[in-house]
Design brief:
This protein has about 475 residues and is an alpha/beta fold. It has helices at about 25-35, 45-55, 60-65, 70, 90-95, 105-115, 130-145, 160-165, 180-185, 205, 210-215, 230-240, 290-305, 310-315, 345-350, 370-380, 390-400, 420-440, 460-475, and strands at about 15-20, 40-45, 60, 75-80, 100-105, 120-125, 150-155, 170-175, 190-195, 225-230, 245-250, 260, 265-270, 275-280, 325-330, 335-340, 360, 380-385, 410, 445-450.
């Protein structure tokens, strides 16, 4: 795909407003300053603004900025952190005044195309409701095995702007992008992009499923579009992709132009003729989800000419990260698993269906997702459910409708009421949750933290929730197994 030259010289001397003074917002300050812009950062957190000030930006509290409508008129551009919705007060006011709004990813794309820090990189973009981080990490492992100067960045933790400033300068970026980031990045056209799957998530942010799907589809606007064929919504995007080269991947045997599994081996039938990559049994994490993520990572790597041997070596060396179906402990014949990263029903489904008998720990912020379909599908696997968080009642009601015989405990309740404020209180709730779950479990069962919901109602993030679970499990004694609390 031919690209025109990018000229960002218009930013020299221009005033630019950055909304959000956390990781994404702070990361774009340096490139903007290097381009000669006059940068102001706005946030509602004074402490965050202090960090922005320390790296050379002017700062203004969001309420103060909104209190002076004329102040926005001074800015030539607004660069927003991805979590800001289009209807948020600052962005809505900017749009109303005709000021362009870019996301941090959009700015990073233009900075890269303008070659501010070195030659243009090739972007390999990963998105989907679930499996993004695993696939991006697998891809990074493959690129490392291929001795390609590369870095994993984006929603995986390292801002793209920071990745571009690295020395040595990367030639390839493995970029995980959320639906928020894609919404704010209409100019991004990657060397290759994949949509792994699409399920209900962030519907409140996008105003419904259509908006969410449209944002995800932007990953397929580059030279090569890769779609998960076993996922109906993702597969449908193939027909609407502007890419001239669409590749699919599936768990079954691949047709021409696809990657898949044949006789227990991952096979590439898109960038070669039935090229064997690696045995499915060698993929970690094991199971269908892990194999699909490996196929997606392999497709992106093969799209830029990575050889099969490097794909094999990279996937064999990859190890799953924390809070992604990680075994925490085995006690009294019961396995305790932390899948705190299962922050929506689609992710929880894959996690639960990997086990025969599950004591399910769930709850948090459902973000507009409907839980009923999940409960119907997993009902026969559930030994019991222990629920927490703001939307725990919605899960309890779905269980009452579709799995009325499954015992349900919802916390906080009774003596646990009132302990949902702050990190220490969240940890106290988790200790009670784990104790109740252990009491419902018998030898051979799995106690599974697969919340199907986001964590921010109680915990600082899904990692905090997973750590709290793991720490609570370590406090258990053998006598806690199979001893239900009253």
């Amino acid at each position: 795909m031919n690209e025109t030259s990018i000229d960002l010289s218009w930013l020299r001397g221009s005033s630019v407003l950055v909304t959000g003074a956390r990781v994404s917002g702070l990361a774009v300050v340096r490139p903007l300053l290097d381009l000669g812009a006059v940068v102001t950062v706005t946030d509602s957190d004074r402490g965050a603004l202090d960090r922005a000030s320390s790296i050379g930006a002017a700062v203004v509290l969001q309420d103060d900025l909104l209190g002076d409508p004329a102040a926005l008129a001074a800015f030539s551009l607004v660069v927003t952190s991805p979590g800001f919705r289009p209807d948020s007060p600052v962005l809505a006011a900017a749009a109303g005044q005709g000021i362009p709004v870019w996301g941090d990813v959009e700015l990073s794309w233009h900075v890269d195309r303008a070659e501010l820090y070195g030659p243009r990189t090739r972007w390999l973009v990963v998105t989907g409701t679930n499996g993004k981080t695993t696939t991006t990490s697998m891809l990074a492992s493959i690129l490392e095995a291929a001795a390609i100067e590369s870095v994993a960045c984006g929603n995986i933790g390292l801002p793209i702007a920071d990745a571009l400033r690295r020395t040595p300068h990367p030639s390839v970026l493995a970029v995980e992008l959320s639906s928020f980031q894609l919404f704010w990045a209409p100019s991004v056209h990657p060397a290759a992009g994949v949509v792994l799957n699409i399920a209900e998530d962030h519907l409140d942010w996008h105003g419904g499923m259509d908006g969410y799907v449209q944002a995800k589809a932007r990953a397929l606007s580059g030279e090569i579009a890769v779609v998960g064929l076993d996922d109906t919504r993702a597969a449908r995007l193939a027909a609407g992709s502007p890419s001239g080269n669409v590749v699919g991947f599936r768990l079954g045997e691949p047709a021409s132009g696809e990657l898949g599994v044949r006789s227990g081996v991952l096979v590439d039938n898109a960038f070669g003729d039935t090229v064997e990559l690696l045995a499915a049994a060698d993929v970690e994490p094991s199971g269908p989800s892990g194999i699909l993520d490996a196929l997606a990572a392999a497709a992106l790597a093969r799209s830029i000419g990575v050889q099969p041997g490097a794909v094999r070596a990279g996937l064999q060396s990859y190890r799953v990260g924390p809070h992604r179906a990680a075994v925490v402990r085995e006690l009294g014949g019961v396995t305790f698993i932390d899948d705190s990263k299962a922050t929506n029903p689609h992710a929880a489904r894959s996690s639960i269906l990997a086990h025969e008998r599950v004591v399910w720990i769930a709850g948090g912020l459902l973000k507009g997702a409907v839980i009923d379909d999940l409960v119907v599908e997993i009902a026969d696997r559930l030994v019991a459910a222990v629920l927490l968080g703001r939307d725990g009642m919605q899960i309890a009601e779905a269980l009452a409708r579709h799995a009325p015989d499954v015992p349900v405990v919802r916390l906080p309740s009774g003596d646990d009421a009132g302990v949902t404020h702050g990190a220490e209180d969240a940890d106290a709730v988790m200790r009670a949750v784990v104790a109740h779950a252990a009491g419902r479990a018998e030898p051979g069962d799995t106690v599974l933290l697969a919340p199907a919901a986001a964590s921010l109602d109680m915990f600082s993030d899904y990692g905090h929730r997973g750590r709290s679970f793991a720490e609570s499990v370590q406090l258990l004694d053998i006598v806690d197994i199979g001893s239900p609390r009253s």
